[in-house]
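>> received
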Amino acid sequence: MEMNMKNPTVQKISAASLLVALGIIYGDIGTSPLYVMKAIVGDRPITELLVYGGVSCVFWTLTFQTTFKYIFLTLSADNHGEGGVFSLYALVKRFGKGKLVIPTILGATTLLADGIITPPISVASAVEGLEVLIPDLPTVPIVIAILSGIFFFQRFGTQKIGSFFGPAMVIWFSMILILGLTQIVHHPEIFKALNPIYAYNLLVEYPHGFWLLGAVFLCTTGAEALYSDLGHCGKTNIRITWVFVKIALVVNYLGQASWLMTQSANTLDGKNPFFSIMPEWFLLSGIIIATCATVIASQALISGSYTLINEAISLNFWPRVALRNPTDLKGQIYIPSLNTILWIGCVLMILYFKNSAHMEAAYGFSITVAMMMTTFLLAYYLIYIKKIKTIWVGLILLVFSAIEISFFIANVVKIKERWMFLFFELFIFMIMYIWFYSRKINNKFLKFTNLAEKAPMLKELSEDDSIPKYSTHLIYLSKADKNYEIEEKILKSIFSKKPKRADVYWFLHINRTNEPHTLNYDVIEILDDKVIKVVLNVGFRVQPKVELYFKKIVQDLVENKELNLHIRPDGSTKYNNEPDYKFVILEKFLSVENEFAVKEGLMLNSYFLLKHLSQSDAKAFGLDKSDVAIEKVPIVYQPISKLTLERKINK
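>> returned
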């Protein structure tokens, strides 16, 4: 039986779909010309080796990392149209036997960390263009105000301003393309820089040239976010629009390099080549367009962070938190707690680093790690799902590993300039690690029994008039994935000292699927009209609303005249026409009888602390309207092995 849940992925190719792709996908990578060439040149003397070599490295990085790895290879690893590290993990986790959990957590952690560095560096880079017009302008308050505005408006959704994103990014890419062309005509020899020999010479012959890769890497940092946003547009739309985007980016980088080669000054002297190539009459307009583009880039990263955490919750990598749908669009998710964390992180970043030049040093490390983890997971996908010969996968892995490890080493030296940033990443990593592995420990305590064997006892209890009726419909949420199994603790709850008599016993199992947008159910009748199990298959990108789904299932069964539910009373009365439903949720807690080793003690105590701080099961499963009973169940993980207790003897 199928519920209506459409996949929002846009697969049809049209002018509108291509416009959507431009507006959503390329914000991060599309605004990199604001700071890449400035970061490469820095305060170094402007020489042909530095400029030609730098722009050559940028071109070949975009070709290998973005075009070949992400546009061509990684976008093919879509999970029913969805992308990102969790979608890739869901595809390949059955082949990894647990080895893929840490790489997935690392990839997700570093990508989420990108959400607090991309907005401030992008917005700051654009706003700092005003210093050309107004020297010594205090840009930090302006950047904080813009960032605060972006995060404030998240609660209203981006449905209305989303239609503005596409045309705005068309203007942006057209602008950087034209600006680049206006400079190339003054120094057409710059096209020689596309020869990879210039990149090689920079790395080998320029003093400390290898370490410039940390700045070069900034040109491709948005590639990982590009893959995460796959589900919004479809890979065909992304691949077509990338042709235009890459041409615009490369031409602008070549234009900035041309401008550098025509300067009489020996150094940049604090100038940004991006704004320097603008005509003076266009500068203010260019700054406004650049600021709009950076706001769009920030929005894409923030929305991607919401999607990432939503997937992490579904795959048991993150505690359940409150989710909101600000609009009627399915893909629009708002997570208040994450919004606050990201806002505080972004504000602290701009207060700590002061300007984009300092943030450039902090940028790159996290995304390098994310890219390396994606490469690792991608190898499993190519071998086990695409069935490509291991030798070819090994060759691909060798090429990308060499590139990414080089970028990683070049970025590692920046650790001393970004120590504060590491605490945020460690915080995110530990939450995911503790939550995932502690849940696995908890699941070891699950003991199942045959529900069919217990059905006669349930029938006897249901018909025993000496026991007060607890509810007409009694519903338990069950983790048992086999149709005829149930947890022992649920049966103990029903047959305890005060047995729970009901007309119908329902056992509802939520099966999280590896597909993103599944929403269907199966009904298994264990005992006629008395004991019923429902398996609800929910995709990992779907927010479960159990109460809504359950009532819809019962309504369907009644309308179809199944299970004779249509001829039996549902518990409603003349005083209240609502059916009599009672949901029971069993919540675990750590018993005082445990005697933990250090590691297990830290893990489980941290887990239950996170669980206490997270959203309740009733709200998480959408049971905020129903009559819900919460029962506490103690966990004895490591019972006290030796108890010394002596009886006092009175003399």
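>> The CA atoms of residues 178 and 252 lie 8 Å apart.
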